[in-house]
Amino acid sequence: MTDAAALLRKLGGRVGVVRAKNPDETQGINTRVDLARAEAIYRQRILEHWMREGVTIVDPASTYIDPMR
Fold first, then answer.
1. What pLDDT, on a 0 to 100 scale, did the predictor assign at position 18?
2. What is the pTM of this model?
3. Alpha-helical runs (H) found in 1-69
């Protein structure tokens, strides 16, 4: 992915910068450990959303909720 900007520019494309509000959203995923870490962050975000909406989650560490589409 890090080579994509240079390749795009070389092919005449436009390259710009976007600032992420949350650095967790821009972390690289290169290993299964990185993937598990990213999944845990995303899962925690979903759980926190629903708990703030009033849902009681007895054990967040073992609760999985699919994102709404």
1. 85
2. 0.68
3. 4-10, 32-52
Burial 30-52 (b: 16+ CB within 10 A, else e): eeeeeeeeeeeeebeeebeeeee
Query: What's 45's DSSP letter?
Result: H
Query: 67: Cβ–Cβ under 8 A, 6 or more apart, which residues?
Result: 42, 46
Burial of 9 (0-12, 13-18, 19+ CB in 10 A): exposed
Question: How does pLDDT run across 37-49, given as a tens digit for each residue?
Answer: 999 999 999 999 9
In the structure encoding, which two tokens stand for residue 64, read together?
A: 């999985």
